Amino acid sequence: xxxxxxxxxxxxxxxxxxxxxxxxxxxxxxxxxxxxxxxxxxxxxxxxxxxxxxxxxxxxxxxxxxxxxxxxxxxxxxxxxxxxxxxxxxxxxxxxxxxxxxxxxxxxxxxxxxxxxxxxxxxxxxxxxxxxxxxxxxxxxxxxxxxxxxxxxxxxxxxxxxxxxxxxxxxxxxxxxxxxxxxxxxxxxxxxxxxxxxxxxxxxxxxxxxxxxxxxxxxxxxxxxxxxxxxxxxxxxxxxxxxxxxxxxxxxxxxxxxxxxxxxxxxxxxxxxxxxxxxx
Length: 280
What we know:
Blueprint: E1 2-5, H1 13-28, E2 33-36, H2 43-51, E3 55-57, E4 68-70, H3 78-86, E5 90-92, H4 97-111, E6 115-119, H5 125-133, E7 138-141, H6 144-148, E8 153-160, H7 166-175, E9 180-185, H8 191-204, E10 209-213, H9 219-230, E11 234-238, E12 254-259, H10 265-279
Parallel strand pairs: 1-12, 2-3, 2-4, 4-5, 6-7, 6-8, 8-9, 10-11, 10-12
């Protein structure tokens, strides 16, 4: 068996930044530290934070006054920040810089009377916070059929969730051309996401099987699984080494390994080591 790693694998910059900030806060705070939802979509990382004493909650109301709260990498809405300030919470913002950039662009488009169209998953935390920031003055789409339903607008601004499929973004962009006299397109899919997607396409051409390692709730991991399968390669999505099955593989296989942007190196290494134990 030959194991080939994707060129782009492990934590992206935004995740490294968020995890680093949260880890530092935990070391410096003797009192309870809260997280307003999981800062990243990786179960192993979040479990480790829980073991360190972090309390993960869904609402500001669950956090005692004057506590420290860490916001998630996916962004936080202004209304939630306002609630946190009203309770005198010490806010530690770990929002990914790329997500903040999307928020600023959305605000600009909304302020300048563009009909804002967002390529994204409606229930993803990044989109939920983004919509709140621009007072829900946007249409979230995920398919070409949804673009077709848009009525003619004088001005349209098109942006994307940072973790979406770049190729689908380009397809949807072209469909908006006949919906307006002025179209402004901002490719807000983060560079790390794009490079990871391109890298996995190259990997798919070299292997018989691809194992994608990442959280089930991770949007960027799901995109990688989708892209791998579109390339026609047998693809398995796992969160841990224990989810891998011996029967998936043959000794002569070339096996590709890739991961979502929130998958730590130690989880990836566990998967690689298990494959080596089985076949080398």
